[in-house]
Amino acid sequence: QDYTWEDHGFSLINRLYPDVGQLLDEKFQVVYNLTYNTIAMHCGVDTSMLRRAIWNYVHCVFGIRYDDYDYGEVNQLLERNLKIYIKTVACYPEKTTKHIYTQFWRHFKHSEKVHINLLLLEARMQAALLYAL
């Protein structure tokens, strides 16, 4: 059975540390929902599928998989260099280099790459909390 932040982690951490669950949940939601609705030069783009794919890929790297998510989306939306970058930053942050950073999404804005970093670091934190709880 799925052990999710929304269904289990949030309520358990609130019982252990009152109000911390709400603060963490707000932090996760702010980063997850952060968007300018642009991708490179394209404006008015719904980026929710991409953000969900990145979040779920990070969880997948740590062994957390959801039955109701189609992981085929991950392969369609995340290019190989982006997957390598995500896995390196999430699992081996000490091995992250500028070269790896510049290899993915070459034509994208720096702010979009920073958003990827925020997404994967918060997803990594949520995955660690799920294991701890």
TrEMBL record:
<dbReference type="GO" id="GO:0016684">
    <property type="term" value="F:oxidoreductase activity, acting on peroxide as acceptor"/>
</dbReference>
<dbReference type="GO" id="GO:1904262">
    <property type="term" value="P:negative regulation of TORC1 signaling"/>
</dbReference>
<dbReference type="GO" id="GO:1990253">
    <property type="term" value="P:cellular response to leucine starvation"/>
</dbReference>
<dbReference type="GO" id="GO:0071233">
    <property type="term" value="P:cellular response to L-leucine"/>
</dbReference>
<dbReference type="InterPro" id="IPR006730">
    <property type="entry name" value="Sestrin"/>
</dbReference>
<dbReference type="GO" id="GO:0070728">
    <property type="term" value="F:L-leucine binding"/>
</dbReference>
<dbReference type="Pfam" id="PF04636">
    <property type="entry name" value="PA26"/>
</dbReference>
<dbReference type="GO" id="GO:0005634">
    <property type="term" value="C:nucleus"/>
</dbReference>
<protein>
    <submittedName>
        <fullName>SESN2 protein</fullName>
    </submittedName>
</protein>
<dbReference type="GO" id="GO:1901031">
    <property type="term" value="P:regulation of response to reactive oxygen species"/>
</dbReference>
<dbReference type="GO" id="GO:0016239">
    <property type="term" value="P:positive regulation of macroautophagy"/>
</dbReference>
